[in-house]
Amino acid sequence: MAETKNIGIKVNQPKKECNDKKCPFHGNLSVRGRSFTGIIIARDVHRTATVTWERTVKIPKYERYARERTKIRVHNPSCIDAKEGDQVKIMECRPLSKTKNFVIIDNLGKQFGFEQIQEGMLESKHAPSKKEQDEKLEEETKDESS
């Protein structure tokens, strides 16, 4: 059994083993730089996952804060094997491909409210048309008059 390498950060060591060269625990990948916690919203075949999290950004002109969503592609080692809806801790590493500069270092488990996050993303992509809004308004007025 190959020994799990210490990556220099306090995280749960993976219970499974893998032979992935791009794994920080079993391969030769070193992690450094920024670390974030987010939720996996998509997975690909080639050990890639899409992680998202929300942050607040101040808009000085209006003296208000706005919520923005950050979405990045990360490497998902086979020993961690995080699924959609899992909350994960990610850390920066050397560029692994054109779009991947981060790797998952810890799986924190299922995130409560993952369905609401996905629904919010779907709503932002598809706003109801004027015709749909008018039909809904007619139905509501019809119900109130009855």
Describe it for me?
Strand 2 and strand 3 form a beta hairpin. The protein is elongated and about 70 Å long. The protein has 146 residues and is of the alpha+beta class. The mean pLDDT is 84. It contains two helices and five strands; from the N terminus they run E-E-E-E-E-H-H. The chain has a domain at 31-112: OB fold (Dihydrolipoamide Acetyltransferase, E2P) (Beta Barrel), CATH 2.40.50. The longest helix is centred in the last third of the chain and has 16 residues, at 130-145. The protein is 19% helix and 37% strand. The chain has a five-stranded mixed β-barrel with strand order 1-2-3-5-4.
Query: What does the radius of gyration come to?
Result: 21 Å
Going across the major beta sheet, what is the strand order? 1-2-3-5-4
How much is the average pLDDT? 84
CATH topology of the domain at 31-112: OB fold (Dihydrolipoamide Acetyltransferase, E2P)
Low-confidence stretches: none
H/E series, N to C?
Answer: EEEEEHH
Provide a count of the helices.
Answer: 2
CATH class of the domain at 31-112: Mainly Beta
Task: Jot down its keywords.
37% strand, elongated, 5 strands, 2 helices, OB fold (Dihydrolipoamide Acetyltransferase, E2P), alpha+beta, 5-stranded mixed beta barrel, 146 residues
